[in-house]
Amino acid sequence: MSKNREIPPMHPASAVDFLPLAQLRDVQFTRLKFIVQRAYDNVALFRKRMNERKLKPGDLRTMEDIVKLPFTVKTDLRDTYPYGMAASPLQEIVRFHASSGTTGKPIVVAYTKEDLDDWTRAMVRSFAACGVHSGDIVQNAYGYGLFTGGLGAHYGAEALGASVIPISGGNTDRQIMILKDFGVTVICCTPSYFLHLIERAAELGMDIKEMPLSIGVFGAEPWTENMRERIEAGSGIKAYDIYGLSEIVGPGVAMECTHQAGPHIFEDMFYPEIIDSKTLEPLSDGTEGELVLTTLCKRAMPMIRYRTRDITSLEPARCACGRTLRRIRRIGRRSDDMLIIRGVNLFPSQIEAALLKVEGTLPHYQIIVDRQKGLDTLEVQVEVTNEALSDTVGGLEQLQKQLARSIEGITGLRPALKLVAPRTIQRSEGKARRVIDKRIL
Amino acid sequence: MKLKQLSVFLENKPGALSEPCRLLAKAGISIQTFSLADTREFGILRLVVEDSDKARRLLQRNGFAVKVTKVVVLEVPDRPGGLAAILDALDGTGINVKYAYGFTVRRENKGVLVFCFDDPDAAIRVLQKQGINVEGGAGLLKRSKS
Prior knowledge:
By secondary structure, chain A is α/β, with parallel strands linked by helices.
């Protein structure tokens, strides 16, 4: 179904994707020693954990020794907010990004000039891997701002030599107008938003199949083969999966090649491991477990053995494209209760914190996530308590507004808030089911 | 005089109203008067009952959210201007009527009005001064059921 598109000659930046394995492992180990030393010298939390294990950076003898190193988890970033995990002085830090956190405090990540260059290179390799090249017109509909998606894709596409339209997220009708009028060939956004664009274009009497658009770089949320089929059939483009997380760098940690056989991890920059999320023991390639990533280059904020909570496996077989980089299987679930809604990370504990803030005690609640017209919807049902009840409609509507505003303040997501009668939210074994995710991915 | 009104949270769906009423009926608690405020999603059933403490415990025990509010019950003559006289008396005092409801007792040619004021005690003082019967309403509520 997809539109004809010549595969361009290899981009010079992609050469690293094809490093002979022995050489790749050498590069990884050299960089690992450097980054562990850097973290040990500059990050108090990491040094403390190394000392507790009676480990010195010099104890790393081979790449396999990485399993001796302590893990880093999301709460470490929260606990050391905002600068505690930085290994560079502020004089060398040129950029911050952030994602939402449980108590309203975001998780902050920092970059030096070199880090931004590395990230840009990873994004150039990402675009190049799926055949984007100079001459392409890239509509970047990822949100610009603290979120890493917008600026990450922007710098990468620009460095590749593509013509970038920095439209950011939202305003669907305008997105479609520009898609058509500019003759856009590549779009970057969440896959669910693109499905929405297809539907909206049809409503406006337009067909994306008849437009020059031929590549979609889709990420920032989990999606499935089924969605890929729907996208490709509905628009005639090729849909590629890009993977990343702000704690590591942002988008560009892994990207699919034209064979669409799972994202290749840019292993020379981000070293992957799979562990058993309960025993924390390493698992071999091909076995499903939690993805753990170590940034091999990042200076401002090295992440050593960062637990992503994403459940996947490393594909042992070599891809037909010839890249020596391992691939991850599509990420379908997580080892924690985090939800990704419209590209925003959401933990049920954030909703709890928001409700607690308004009511003083925690009422029973339920989070209902659905997808309508390609967009994620978030509804929070809250049981009314004797204490919170008002005898006027205005009072209850005020309560509704306060709860919704509190949730938006902490999560960045505006929920539809519904007050329900006590004991109407189903409880199993006395415990309410907190999340109902109706999305069909 | 002041009475305790029970406000019960209801979801706006068929059958929501009958549940609390059935509970009260089974326990032999008589509803003296009520009103219903509603929005698209939820409603508030406001009740004046004989034994408000017993009714509140019963409703809460059965999973209803209940709020107790002090309301003022007034007796007015059942003729044009009965309600207007009360509002006239309050005019300019700064006392706000949050909501009100009422009914007439034809047999006695009287009306019973239930008011929720932002300051019920101040309202009673003002109304008494204006010669409005602030004591009779409660008795009339009781008599009206027989």
